[in-house]
Design brief:
heterodimer; A: mainly beta; three-stranded antiparallel β-sheet; 51% strand; B: six-stranded mixed β-sheet; five-stranded antiparallel β-sheet
């Protein structure tokens, strides 16, 4: 069964801490994405990557950075966490970049910043 | 500004009832996807519709893509508690890796 795995399901951090969210996929997909999900706002794209070491800003990149050193791994970094970054973070991957991307999502990482 | 608006935002119905969820936009999409997200899990793809006017059926779920490819609907017949979840539509507007725009979501609760 193909998978996107987010290693941390629940995290509680303090304001100002550095936070790493890890995501690994085993499908050899080129594209990987980080979204945040908030009630009433749907999914908002933070960053995506279409190849190793390549990254592109999404709709809400402020306060976040990403790293993709290996094809299967895409990390989301919060350099200095703030309370407004409390949210559900979803990682996804896809293979088709020429037409309709079909995303495979991880189970999510729920981050609380105190 | 949301590109895709879903309605209703919340829906609570009794088991056995029928329901329709709408996904509307003023923009044209090359294709549209529907995902379902169960509590504690990530969204899972249900269907992709590509052609204007297309209708696809998945057991008790019927998906329709509008003729002008600006809107879509999801109809569930005889809802069951297992249908409970967050339903998300996502429209594809351009080629490339970042071409999906997600709707605001409809949270469905089916009461046994």
């Amino acid at each position: 069964d193909v998978k996107v795995t987010q290693s941390s399901r629940y995290l509680v951090k303090r304001t100002g801490e550095k936070v790493f969210l890890e995501c690994v996929q085993d499908m050899d997909h080129e594209n990987m994405f980080w979204y945040r999900q908030d009630p009433g706002l749907g999914l908002r794209l933070i960053y995506f990557s279409y190849d190793v070491k390549m990254k592109e800003k999404g709709d809400i990149p402020e306060g976040y950075s990403v790293s993709r050193e290996k094809k299967e791994r895409f990390s989301l970094i919060l350099e200095s966490a703030s309370t407004n970054q409390t949210s559900m973070y979803l990682c996804a991957s896809s293979v088709d970049s020429s037409g309709a991307n079909v995303l495979t999502f991880g189970a999510g990482s729920r981050l609380t910043v105190l | 500004t949301q590109l895709l608006e879903q309605s209703p935002q919340f829906l609570s119905i009794q088991e056995g009832e029928n329901l329709t969820v709408y996904c509307n936009s003023s923009s044209v999409f090359s294709s549209l996807q529907w995902y379902r997200q169960e509590p504690g899990e990530g969204p899972v793809l249900l269907v992709t519709v590509v052609t204007g006017g297309e209708v696809k059926k998945l057991k008790r779920l019927t998906f329709q893509f509008g003729d002008a490819r600006k809107d879509s609907s999801l109809h569930i017949t005889a809802a069951q508690p297992g249908d409970t979840g967050l339903y998300l539509c996502a429209g594809a507007r351009r080629t490339g890796a970042n071409n999906l725009f997600f709707g605001t979501g409809t949270r469905l609760t089916v009461i046994p």
